[in-house]
Amino acid sequence: MPPAASAPAAALLCGEVRTHLLPVHQALDIRTAAQFLGLRADERVLLSERPNLYARSPDTLTGVDCPLPTADGARTRAVGTVAARAALTEGRVLQSSAHVTLPAAGPDRRRPWGEYLVRPGVAEPVGKLPPDAVADGVLGGGRPGDLDLGAIADGLLTRLLRHPLIDHRPPLRSRPTRLRWAALPAAPDEEPSLEFTLAEDHLRTVRLRVPEGTPAAEVAGLCDDLALHDWLLTTVVRLFDGIRPDTPAVLAALRPAVDHLLHLWMPRARVTGDLAPLWDELETRPGFTRQWETLVRRIRDQLALHAIPSPHREAELTP
Amino acid sequence: MLVFAASDKGGTGRSVTSANLAYQRALNGDHVAYVDFDFGSPTAAAVFDVPDAVRGTRERGLHSYLEGRATEPAVIDVWRRTENPVLRAWPNQSGRLVLFPGDAGGGEFATDEEALERCVDLLLRLNAEFDVIMVDLSAGRSYAVDMVLAATAHPRMRHVRSRWLVFHRWTRQHVIAASGLVHDEHGILDSGVARGHDGDALRGSIRFVRAAVPDPDSALWSRVSPAQAAWMQSTDEALRRLAAEYAIGDSVVLGVVPLEPILQWREQMITEEDVLATQIANKETLKALEEIARKLTDDTCWGRP
Ligand SMILES: Nc1ncnc2c1ncn2[C@@H]1O[C@H](COP(=O)(O)OP(=O)(O)OP(=O)(O)O)[C@@H](O)[C@H]1O
Ligand SMILES: [Mg+2]
């Protein structure tokens, strides 16, 4: 898509990501993934096999003309389009995400639609944008009728889950997560930064400061990656819920994680340039990879324990 | 596993009993969703004691979701939002217990193709997330019953297991009505087959629950006169024969919930606390609920009898 020459600088980028286990018995291979994510005939699915299997749909656009969520209740309308896309990692984890770029100001009246369509993924405020209030509003969730990026991401997910390739036989039960993000431009003398919060009900929020001019798609890529790894952690931690350790039930509960999830950990696989250092912050606190490694060790220990038949138990079985 | 809770008549104990079954499963570590498809009178919130959704939610209830007015239905985390103090102190090893409430002021509505697709979307998503999904259906041959019969016959749902509980009270009228709901022309079996279900498989996935059954041998009736006792005994036996004659005899009964004074006064969860600590509930009631909850996933209790 041609970059719009007249695009004013973005005052706020925001988005929401939904992360799901793809409900199929067998992970999709790269060819099937391409078929699955081919949302548009005119654009190809992005495919990559290194460092892991990854497929991403072309962007779909949703036209919007609605109030923006604001923390202080101020009413700002925005008109334009929201970009949404879906990505599949190792044919197993499906993410759908929507994002939008909001410039600092727009004309006082709505323009003809054609003028919005030349700048996909941009919604112009009618008048001036209060970026901080909208960032808070997006992260906190809006009122009914406000711009709802989660609903757009979810709509795409629903559409994909109706695809005939999906047999709805997930190898394990898991809970989807949602991650909302808002990125404001960093001041010239300010370092990029990232603040990750676990909010209620499997909702995560990420507040970022990014170098001025960072494209929304790049921030969305970072947030997809964050969401994927947070989902992996959450899902695997939950496998231990409700099972008593050191019982054979542990085997049945943990086995699917070994078969389907443990190989998916690969932070920063697709995070580019300026934003890559933001991951490092998460590695020190809360220490994503450290947590993951501890979990993996715990799983391996449990499996090892139960894979070795206890001589005591065998003795009991012989009459 | 999907579990549909149906009844021919209203006021049979369908909602209260199925909510208690959901609670029992969650206590045992399952992740459980309770879905209020009783569009006429969504009341599950009252049973779970979640006041902010007692009369359904204002917007984003299941009704709004199915009609496409809400992208995602509202969800209530019962453990966190309930005002029942025993439920609030839920034990560590329990699973999630969430309620998908109906809409406030909803009513029965005709379902079109798109509502059906959305129903399938929802059930599939829940099935990927929860171990047990308990669906409370409006009484009688309602749109809700029709919709889930169509949904479970949908090709996208071919790998999803579902079972039916048909609730009825222990009277002549209720026995006949419950049998009719399943076996009569246009009953669940008939409509199910018309929607593409295999008749035998569907029949094997339906069990009956007798609710609020007075047990003549219970201490509750220990003070009745010998004449009354004899009458109760013989009526109970006559009802058993009637049930068998109407093809809803013991072989297809998943459980019997005794008449429980607490539940006659108040729609609520029966907890261990009520039986052991305060002793306001009968232990037989709790035992019956635990037993039915266990049998929901015990394959030996299902299939063609
Ligand atoms: N085992 C029981 N003993 C005594 N009363 C009971 C028992 N089970 C349920 N009840 C009571 O019976 C009444 C009707 O129960 P409930 O609301 O669950 O019925 P329902 O079939 O869901 O009705 P509706 O069709 O109106 O939704 C309630 O007051 C409930 O507390
Ligand atoms: Mg009811």
3D structure, described in words:
The complex is a heterodimer of chains A (319) and B (305). Helices cover 34% and strands 24% of the residues of chain A. Chain A is of the alpha+beta class. Chain A has 2 domains: 10-228, no CATH class; 233-311, no CATH class. The termini of chain A are far apart. Chain B has a single domain (2-302), classed as P-loop containing nucleotide triphosphate hydrolases (Rossmann fold, 3-Layer(aba) Sandwich), CATH 3.40.50. Chain B is built from 14 helices and 8 strands. The longest helix of chain B has 20 residues, at 226-245. The radius of gyration of chain B is 19 Å and the shape is globular. The two termini of chain B are 20 Å apart. Classes of the chains: A alpha+beta (319), B alpha/beta (305). The A-B interface holds A 20-21, 23, 144, 148, 150-151, 154-155, 158, 161-162, 166-170, 173-176, 201, 241-244 and B 29-31, 59-60, 71-72, 75, 77, 93-95, 117, 121, 124-125, 127-131, 156-160. The structure holds adenosine-5'-triphosphate (ATP) and magnesium ion. The site of adenosine-5'-triphosphate (ATP) has 21 residues of chain B, from helix 1, strand 7 and helix 12.
In short:
Chain A has helices at residues 30-36, 113-117, 131-140, 149-161, 216-239, 249-260, 276-284, 288-307, 311-317, and strands at 10-21, 46-48, 54-56, 60-67, 77-89, 93-103, 123-125, 177-185, 193-199, 203-210. With 319 residues, chain A is α+β, with helices and mostly antiparallel strands.
